[in-house]
Amino acid sequence: MKALPLAVAVVAAVPHALAQSVTIERAAGATASRGPVLLSTPVIQERLRFVGADTAAGDNFGFDVWISGDLIAVGAPFADIVTPDVGAAYVFDAVTGLELAKLQAPISSSFFRDGLGSTVVLHGRALYAGAPRHDFLMEPLSGRIYGFEAVSGLALPSIDPVATGNGGTIAHALGETMDVDGGLLVAGSRGDSALQLGGGSAHLFDANTGAFRRKLFPSDPGFADNFGFAVAISGSVVIVGCPFDDDNGTDSGSAYLFDASTGLQLRKLVPVDTGANDLFGARVEIDAGVALVGAPFIDSVGGMADSGAVYVYDVASGARVARWTSPDPGVNHQFGDGLAITQDYLLIGEPLGRNSAGIQSGVIHVYDRSTLALCGRLEASDGADGDGLGESLHTEGSRVVAGARGSDVLGNVSGSAYLFTLP
Any signal peptide, and if so, which residues (predicted)? Predict the structure, then answer.
């Protein structure tokens, strides 16, 4: 079984010749390959860079990120507070870049290696931070989701695994993945063993109160499938990744669509061209009828190991409309290990991809949402090998915030985050 890694204003328009390989799906299942095609794509660098005032080596600041209005949230799940790797979440002013708050669990409820900040989401002025390695009621790795007032740090009600009515919660890892839209928060619980050992589940909560709404299971749960490894929600539709599903071989992966209002499964997504260890469903994203599913460990380009691929789906029909591979592929580049959608663009993170200088700092590829054409890329101006830019992504309007948890700006793997503006 292959494991995923735990997880000054500068704008440049630099031509960058890339060989793009895109497969566009046609009617009746026919496909036509469009590539390689040489494209000249602009490179956009960051407007702001963020680091915590007390970020230190090993913190993995930038592990997850979120932008909402005038606030940016950044998770640092390996920050040492009282004990190692308890974790923290930082809040910044999205306009000035100033740090506004550092949020952490109360000492009375913090445990060794809780990992608070593994995921962060903002809902209004509330910030939810996942602590998937928290031992709730002494059940190891059951997980917990902490709530805070984003700027004051005032504690809001937490979301505990017992609230879902699961019974035992050992190794559920609640809060390892989260998303919020409208009044609903969806959280993955990939270790849930209610139907199968390690089969997984996902949970819907009221984003305003934290109250439990319903639990989602796949129609065909399997041993160690890790359903809930990735989650996303848009309106009334939830997408859940299940990367260790074995439909096309061991750990080939799948993804599921659900009706958020009823909890009913709408369809299962399994491409015909995945195989063992591809981990299709390790990343998912959805917005207004478009769904993205990442398979970052597929050997997609000339047999390059773990070069990665992304699949684009029409939510209403379940039809696959495109399959993308990296325009600049490489071994272990993991194209598709970060996903985001805006009104005009589809963004694909390649955390070990090469920037314009040939440095494996990570890049974010930008595609036109209407034409599916590659139209640009986002890079950090100070990118260095192993930064991992693009593994975590979130957008609002034309703004994109991206984490680079492997950045060494304040020590080895201290981490950083960047704010970009799309045209």
Answer: 1-19
Q: Where are the alpha helices (DSSP H) in 187-282?
A: none
Please tell me whether residue 190 adopts helix, strand or coil conformation: coil
User: Buried b vs exposed e over 275-296: b needs ≥16 C-beta within 10 Å?
Assistant: eebbbbbbbbbbbeebbbbbbb
Q: Is the pLDDT of residue 295 over 90?
A: yes
The closest alpha carbon to 378, from 341, 406, 419, belongs to 419
Specify the length of the chain in residues.
423
Task: Estimate to the nearest angstrom the gap between the alpha carbon of 241 and the chain centroid.
Answer: 11
Domain 17-421 fold: Methylamine Dehydrogenase; Chain H (2.130.10)
DSSP code of 94? T
CB 292 within 8 A of CB 285: yes
* Dihedral sign of CA atoms 400, 406, 411, 415 in order: positive
Joined tokens for residue 240: 């859940």
- The CA distances from residue 75 to 21, 102, 158, 203, 218, in Å, are 34, 10, 17, 21, 29
pTM for this entry? 0.90
